[in-house]
Write a structure and sequence with these properties.
With 269 residues, the chain is mostly beta strands. The chain is 9% helix and 49% strand. The strands form three sheets. Strands 2, 5, 8, 9, 10, 12, 15, 16, 18 and 19 form a ten-stranded mixed sheet that branches. Strands 1, 3, 4, 6 and 7 form a five-stranded antiparallel sheet that branches. InterPro entries: DUF4198 (IPR019613).
Length: 269
């Protein structure tokens, strides 16, 4: 009983932290496969505990798949529940596939006839749908990417090419699907296609529900935009960074908020 009460008290203390620590992620059923046309399933969610569905589902209408030849095939059997979304993907080409949830847009708030108004859209619809003469108009811009990589057979780099939009990551030595416990991997981070220095990364192994500490790894990109990570053990890892700047698509937005998440699998030696 004492142990139960102590645990309950500890959980009560943690509630404010976990409530504000929601993490977005995509998790494939496998990151390395082989065959003429194997299938994988991908879960997508926003959760407190990594790779454990306990909050809300991720949208699937903004999923962008890039095949090894650079094409963008559709996902299959998509379903969004209360806690997670799931979809299937047929890997009918050999090489590396990129699966990403891409969010880019504007949010506006203002008062009209004494009532608060909210709007979401993009730069094209902003000018048509938002009255920019409102004195209390507040506009923010976000560019976010949540992604993972899956390789069928031998890897290739076509799908890994930079889009030049927002934060992106590239492997400097090796490949996203060739990571092993005890080894050190080097990555290079970009903003709008240019190397980005000074970005702070948080790297956490999954299954946080089953341990008392996050055991996060911290890294900051150097002058060349590079970070190095030594993987302490095998497992699925959540890698995240954020930034902000004034490179907005409309003058009414003072700031652009950028975010990036990638799920990587680290294998045992």
């Amino acid at each position: 009983m004492k142990r139960t009460l102590a645990l309950a008290a500890a959980l009560a203390i943690l509630i404010p932290f976990t409530a504000s620590a929601h993490k977005q992620w995509l998790q494939p059923s496998a990151t390395v496969v082989a065959g003429a046309a194997p299938w994988v399933s991908v879960d997508g969610a926003v959760s407190n505990n990594l790779f454990y569905v306990d909050h809300v589902a991720m949208r699937t209408d903004n999923i962008v798949v890039t095949a090894p030849d650079g094409s963008h095939p559709a996902i299959a059997n998509a379903h969004t529940g209360k806690l997670r979304s799931v979809f299937d993907l047929e890997l009918n080409q050999p090489g590396t596939w990129r699966v990403a949830s891409v969010n880019a847009g504007l949010m506006a708030n203002w008062t009209e006839d004494g009532k608060p108004k909210r709007w979401r859209g993009n730069a094209e619809t902003f000018a048509k749908e938002v009255d920019t003469s409102k004195a209390d108009l507040r506009v923010s811009e976000t560019v976010g990417r949540v992604e993972t990589f899956i390789t069928n057979g031998n890897p290739n780099d076509t799908a890994l090419a930079l889009t030049g939009k927002g934060i992106e990551l590239q492997a400097v030595d090796g490949h996203f699907n060739d990571l092993f416990a005890g080894e050190t991997s080097t990555f290079k981070v970009f903003i709008d296609g240019a190397p980005a220095a000074g970005l702070e990364f948080e790297i956490i192994r999954g299954d946080t529900r089953y341990r008392n500490a996050q055991e996060e790894i911290k890294a900051t990109s150097d002058a060349n935009g590079q970070i190095s990570v030594t993987w302490p053990s095998a497992g699925m890892y959540w890698v995240e960074t954020t930034s902000s700047d004034a490179k907005t698509s409309v003058p009414q937005a003072a700031q652009r908020r950028l975010s990036y998440v990638v799920t990587l699998e680290v294998l045992p030696q």
